[in-house]
Amino acid sequence: MSGSTPIAVSADYDDRMRGIGELADASAMAEIVERPARQGHRRFLHLAGDYAHTSARWRKQVYLETIERLGLESYGVVDCDWQAEKGRLAVRELPDDSGVTAVVCANDLLATGAIRGAVERGWRVPRDLSVTGWDDNPLGAAMMPSLTAVSVDHERLGRRAVRRLLAVLRDEPEPEENDAITAVVWRESTAPAPGR
Question: Is residue 20 part of a domain?
Answer without folding.
Answer: yes
